[in-house]
Amino acid sequence: MTGLISARDLDWHPAPLAPDYRSSILRSPAHALLHYDPTETEMTGPTFGHNMLGALDDNLILNYANPGEAAIGPRIIVHGKLIDEDRRPLPGKLIEVWQANAGGRYRHKKDGYTAPLDPNFGGCGRCISGEDGSYSFQTIQPGPYPWPNGGNDWRPAHIHFSVFGDGFAQRLITQMYFEGDPHIALCPIVQSIPSTQAINTLVARLDMSNTIPMDIRAYRFDIVLRGRNQTLFENKMEGL
Amino acid sequence: MANFKESASQTAGPYVHIGCVPTFAGLEGMYGGKDLGNTMITGNPAGKRITLCLRVIDAAGEPMTDAMIEAWQPGPEGSFGPTEGFNHWGRQPTDAETGEAIFKTLMPGAPTGQTPHILLWIAARGINMALITRVYFPENDNAADPVFAIAGERAATLVAEKTDNGYVHTIHLQGDHETVFFDV
Ligand SMILES: [Fe+2]
User: CB–CB of A85 and B117 under 8 A?
Assistant: First the structure.
């Protein structure tokens, strides 16, 4: 059970309707979201234990590969900390990821892109954050891919993230991008986020300090969920 | 540089199944061949078993066949658990043909100060930040619920229909019957 969960800044997130992202036109509510403060329903949420994880769940290079084989592509570690807006680590939280292969192709019946499937790459992984909120995956760097949006649209290379917090109000799905990718500035999905500052929260940085020489590069991506446990006193102070 | 504002939301996209329901997506054997959240009733818990069939309809009137819906709910006594033999959280993809997402669960009880309800969270291609709504049950005095009351004259969009085959609830993203979605 957590305390209060801080309000969500809706102007920081993409609006439901982002016309340049054409799928949002038919899939966005016309009415504004109605606000209420989280009740017990939204302050609680499911918990997940380490015992549900398989040994290779956090290793996308190997978790769909034939024995003795591995997924093709640039080998990377994606790691960081899961924290809240009050800088508290979120330990024991489920993080799920999915992505295209190194050629930009998803293992999904609706993906018909020319790039071939990699028989050794499934494209999903999961882990549970540690005591200090840290998490880590090993994977291959996904490729950019074209998508039908009415023009010549290519997604920047990205990894999808699904994250749980303490309370269901903290639940978040987002995408991680790679530092320096010129497609970030061109992508209607990324640019549905109003500010560059908010977009930058989704850009992973090359992390040479955790790169293993002659083996695998590291990218650092911290994930921030809504704040928790503000005391009544703090709330009163803010209101003064 | 550290940033202490919530990470911005992005759409789950059309391939959300790979990450969240990989067995449904055809990744045979992944995570032991069982999708997380698929089964809410795992034992023999007390309470009334119900089926809740959901559909999400887009602005063109078409059922969404690529969405993922999560449910989070109190148990029969109104508490959020844990409850032996029961997962208070469930997750279902909408069917690729019919658009139906079917949750086999327990009738929720009333948390303190609220009427029985199930919180729903909907992620899909075209949805930039997962949509939050609630589903209530027609046999209850829902007007007494503070969140239901906030929905005002649109609150009827939050009530499931009772049928011979269980409860059915249609979520409309737009139109005359647009479902109430919440910022909470
Ligand atoms: Fe994607």
Answer: no
The structure's pTM equals 0.96
Is residue B157 within 8 A of residue B134, CB to CB? The reply is no
**Total of domains in chain A:** 1
Q: What is the ipTM of this complex?
A: 0.97
Q: Render pLDDT for B13-69 as a digit per residue (tens, 0 to 9).
A: 999 999 999 999 999 999 999 999 999 999 999 999 999 999 999 999 999 999 999
Q: Find the DSSP H helices in chain A.
A: 40-43, 196-200, 232-239
Name which of B5, B16, B111 is nearest A85 (Cβ-Cβ). Answer: B5
Closest Cα in chain B, distance from residue A10 (Å)? 8
Residue pointed to by tokens 């083996």: A215
Q: Which of B93, B55, B85 is nearest to B172 (CA)?
A: B55
Name the architecture of domain B16-172: Sandwich (2.60)
For chain B, the structural domain boundaries read: 16-172
B88·A47 Cβ contact <8 A = no
Cα-to-centroid distance, A187 and ligand 1 (Å) = 12
- A18 occurs within a structural domain: no
